[in-house]
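Why do we care about 3D structure at all? Because function follows from shape, and shape follows, mostly, from sequence. That is the central idea of this module. The next example makes it concrete: a single protein chain, its amino acid sequence, and then its structure expressed as tokens.
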Amino acid sequence: MMTAASRWSPRFRAALSRDRTIVLETGDGVRHQFVVRGRAVSSGGTVISRPDCRIVIATAAQALAIFLSPWGVGRLLAGIVEGTVSVEGSLYLLLWFDARLQSVVPIREPIRRPDRFPGAYVAPRNDIAVARWITREPPKSALDTDWVEAWTQRRKLLMMRVAAGEPAPEF
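And the structure:
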């Protein structure tokens, strides 16, 4: 299903931004590899020696229970703590893979955005007393190059580092 989605779904293809290999193995001998190359997913039983992420689960039944459960992420983390699930490589890729799987086999409840309440604060208001206490700066498209502290703090943000192509730190 992931292979078909990578061919036909623009939304799914948008999530396939980098080439990566994820191997799913079980202790009872089941082994499968998912390869993302050029915004397309292919899969098969042949496993390469150095995948980006290798997930080893004790049994195939436990793997199905994890990936087909509405509480899959919690079960994965519980398995890691118990020692029945091991991950070699990035945990970010494990969560990324789980999210891609859920996008083609939507078992879990979708995350619903909250509705806006009537009269919600969506634009600045000058007709109330507290408006004079709110400082409003004009919008900027980039940080000021002379503001060294801001650039130092920005470099610490994981989201900015990954978007710039830097490797994600391991846990």
